[in-house]
Design a protein that fits this description.
The protein is α/β, with parallel strands linked by helices and 140 residues long. It has 5 helices and 5 strands; from the N terminus they run βαβαβαβαβα. It has helices spanning 15-26, 40-50, 64-77, 100-109, 120-139, and strands at residues 2-7, 30-33, 54-59, 86-90, 113-116.
Length: 140
């Protein structure tokens, strides 16, 4: 599966993106890493260009909830991208704790999953499930 990996608009960190790219590639996926500080418009354009099977948004600066909410809302209103699976994870709030209310807002806005505090095991499980789901659709 092709996965589009991105940082959020306000997050300039890159080590998290390198780590996730290597992890996802080790799991057998093609990864297009568009880097840090990605605006909503740039993300939408990259989705149109690369037509990913999954978009992974990562943040470590603590503003992932706010930036992620804006990004997923933009993708959900973009023609042709309304059903592209999107997940977000990392350090999503400045308090450094999980916030179920904010996570619920991200899910309501259109995220398939929220992996707060860098829940890598959860991401692995989701990606494996998407692989099986796509394989079933192709062979059915």
């Amino acid at each position: 599966m092709k996965i589009l990996l991105t940082g959020t608009a306000s997050d300039s960190h890159t080590w998290n993106l390198v780590y996730l790219q290597l992890l996802l590639e080790e799991l057998g996926h093609r990864v297009v890493n568009i880097g840090p500080c990605v605006t909503d418009d740039r993300l939408a354009a990259a989705c149109h260009t690369h037509t990913p099977g999954l978009v992974v948004i990562s943040s470590v600066n603590g503003h992932g909830y706010r930036d992620g909410l804006s990004a997923v809302r933009r993708l959900r209103t973009e023609p042709g991208l309304g059903t592209t699976p999107v997940v977000i994870g990392g350090k999503l709030g400045v308090a450094g704790t999980r916030d179920p209310e904010r996570a619920a807002r991200l899910l309501e806005a259109g995220c398939e999953a929220v992996f707060d505090d860098g829940d890598v095991a959860g991401l692995r499980t989701l990606v494996s499930g998407l692989d099986r789901s796509l394989a079933l659709r192709v062979t059915a």
